[in-house]
Amino acid sequence: MRPLLSSLALAACCLQSPALFAQHAHEHGVAHLQIAVERGTVEASFDLPGDDLLGFEQAPATDAQKAAAAAAGERLKDAAAILSLSPAAQCTVAEASFEAETPEAGAEHVDFVAHYRFTCATPAALTGFTTGLFKAFPSIGELAVQSQAPQGVREQKLAAGNPEYRF
Ligand SMILES: [Zn+2]
Q1: pTM for the complete prediction?
Q2: Which residues surround ligand 1, an ion (CB under 5 A)?
Q3: In sequence order, what DSSP letters do the residues of the chain get, joined into one string?
């Protein structure tokens, strides 16, 4: 019985996210963030239009395009600037990764996904975050956030003038 029980537990864990978070259309200037808080762990996935990160949406070919891709990667690697969690929660970056989604054949648009995981020493003090996404990528005008935290499940749109989110 034991192997069956563990595989069921695993399925329950991992099927939750797609059911909770609906898919969205690719729209330039609009980024999406799915963030989940469970005990002391914060998982965050940003979905970003390639055009806003790089100014183009194909595999970097010229030197200028390669430099733009490297610069965007450097900005995204600064997880604490992109997602600044409540300081009192004492969260540290456990993982930061960045990848282009494989476009379908003939697709004209490319999305990038930046994934971050934080571990927080005082999760009870975790009440929200401020995003530095608008400073890092000024052509992004809106960040649509969906969160799942002990405070509940909610959605809110952030903008450059309103970069703070409360769970
Ligand atoms: Zn596009």
Answers
A1: 0.83
A2: 49, 51, 57, 109
A3: -HHHHHHHHHHHHHHHHHHHS------TTEEEEEEEEETTEEEEEEEEEHHHHHSS-S---SHHHHHHHHHHHHHHH-HHHHEEE-GGG-EEEEEEEEEEPPPPTT-S--EEEEEEEEEES-GGG--EEEE-HHHH-TT--EEEEEEEETTEEEEEEEBTTB-EEE-
